[in-house]
Amino acid sequence: MARKFVLAAALIASASCLPGDPPGNEFMPPGATDQRSACPYLNTLANHGFVKRSGVAVGRDEVNNAFDVVFNVDPTITNMIFTAALAGTTSSIPDTINYVDLNQHGLIEHDGSLSRNDAAIGNNFAFNQTIWNQMTMFFTTPLITIEQMATARVGRINRQRAANPIFLFDEKAGMTSLGETSLVLMTFSNGSIDGGANRQQVDTFFTQERLPFDQGFVVPTQRITADRVQMVGQKITNATGAGSSIDGAGSATVASSGSHMGFNLATCIVTLASFAWALL
């Protein structure tokens, strides 16, 4: 607990007084033996040393505390996520995960990610600039709106479906996709449920996997909780439109992908155990 408050104080001091990183949590790219995952959130936390920089045997408390301190995400969310991630762990140390394990296709990672390729046709864990460009072409204002994110998400999924002959975007993937896009919007808009994520900060976060303190990033003051994620997910759903077909079968609309049927909290709780690790 003491560690949490020390980190929080350092983050506030850095964001308020200095353009650089908080002392002790400076950005460092991964070394040759360090593991990284398909999730830019986890990768960024490791790159700043909020969890083990190696990405090996990362513990539950590390992850819960890091998401709490850095992104103001309720630990009840990350605790569920961590439990789901343990299903694929190869770590010999109890209650820990290795980052590389999170890249297993279908465990938590899914087709149609925001910034990675599908496992069937490419690298599903490394950042892909071409794919990311397919998202950012819709971000036409300094602050990303819910409508822009909804349009970018549908466009991205449809492009990937056309490229991948075995593309799968079922209800689980649809809900995971909603959760991850909601989290991005909230992280870079001070936790707002109304959109307005800082485009420059989002781009730095994805492309460099670092916290953009030099661009004004601060820890969201509004708590990111399951019910608030639900609210943003429902707004993305409403902005997507009933005519946008993004399911894996190609025969139905957004409804069958979990994107137009309504962002129900009960369903969200089940899939919360997927969305943050699968934030591609």
From TrEMBL:
Family statement drawn from the similarity comment of this UniProt entry: Belongs to the chloroperoxidase family.
Database matches in Gene3D superfamilies: Chloroperoxidase-like (1.10.489.10)
A Pfam family recorded for this sequence: Peroxidase_2
Keywords: Heme, Iron, Metal-binding, Oxidoreductase, Peroxidase, Signal
InterPro entries: Chloroperoxidase (IPR000028), Chloroperoxidase-like_sf (IPR036851)
UniProt key word Metal-binding: yes
Molecular function terms, GO-annotated: metal ion binding; peroxidase activity
Origin organism lineage: Eukaryota, Fungi, Dikarya, Ascomycota, Pezizomycotina
Leader peptide range in chain numbering: 1-17
Protein name as catalogued: Heme haloperoxidase family profile domain-containing protein
Heme as UniProt keyword: yes
Names of the cofactor(s): heme b
Superkingdom of origin organism: Eukaryota
Heme haloperoxidase family profile domain segment(s): 23-233
